[in-house]
């Protein structure tokens, strides 16, 4: 089909890359060992601490979020250790696959696919671990497959209430720079992210922020490792921070993305995500009144500002998604794993504004109408009415 104008990416990753980031990357290679490039790279790692809201260290990798999952396992755990992973959906499940493959013992909870993890389930699992074999609780803050926001601070309190020494590690791939994660204030020992979501960059870089307790645990961990090892990635040269050639263009892009985030200010970044997410939710709530659609996340507080997952009790979300993508030039997320065929996901993270979101919502309403999915017309107007109150 002939397509004109801009196609919209309304995926929960990868997200829109700002022109400013793309332009910053369009440069020939320089000698990365030069003083200027080294200084800029160090500056990026320093500024990332502001985004992670930590005084800990940030380690960069040329890797995906999947790589960051393995980074925390390799640095913090040894064969025979156990971890507790609350079952939140497709992404916690993928992390668990990696944990099992590495011979680490896995303790999990009952599923929390439509609500935030119950801190009591975490506390109970930790109390049952009298010998303290569980070395870490690994949780996903925004579970991108369900759109559910999980309460990191509540899980920290549950660990403390159980009197358990386990570290708290957070997958913030979908949540960093989209929803608040004050790492130090909430007692998070390590957090991971990837470049292609809230950081508005191409896929291909990963970051892990490490607090003092996790650093100590890594130092004490004798499990064999090298490439991912935080201990290998130190020194004066950016070559060592990457344990190999720094990805120059990505770092220029990162510099531009961090400038954009810090110019806007992290509180304003979170407020923008909250405003646009609420507009999407107003539309979904309105459409849902006809009885065929509902929020995957049951409680309003569990609906993340990064992605909204819409359950179809009638009609085919995949047909709507493909129609919107192939005929109307807006790409939404589909259902992953057990949610496939049941869910359509509206990503609203990263470099997004009102016209982009309203355009996408209007296309989704068009798709619902064309494919005869029962919905109350006027969801876009409901979003407009909400946005009109926000100035
Ligand atoms: C996207 C995502 C990942 C995976 O990131 P990749 O870079 O694709 O490996 C992991 N966790 C969450 C919560 C995500 O949203």
UniProtKB/TrEMBL annotation:
Signal peptide from the UniProt entry: none
Keyword Hydrolase appears in the UniProt entry: no
Binding annotation for substrate: 345
Positions carrying N6-(pyridoxal phosphate)lysine: 197
InterPro entries, per the entry: Aminotrans_V_dom, Aminotrans_V_PyrdxlP_BS, PyrdxlP-dep_Trfase, PyrdxlP-dep_Trfase_major, PyrdxlP-dep_Trfase_small, SP_NH2Trfase/AEP_transaminase
Bilayer-spanning residue ranges: none
Domain spans labelled Aminotransferase class V: 35-331
Essential cofactor(s): pyridoxal 5'-phosphate
Keywords recorded for this protein, A-Z: Aminotransferase, Pyridoxal phosphate, Transferase
Similarity field: Belongs to the class-V pyridoxal-phosphate-dependent aminotransferase family.
Name assigned to this protein: Aminotransferase class V-fold PLP-dependent enzyme
Source organism of the structure: Marinimicrococcus flavescens
Native organism taxonomy: Bacteria, Pseudomonadati, Pseudomonadota, Alphaproteobacteria, Geminicoccales
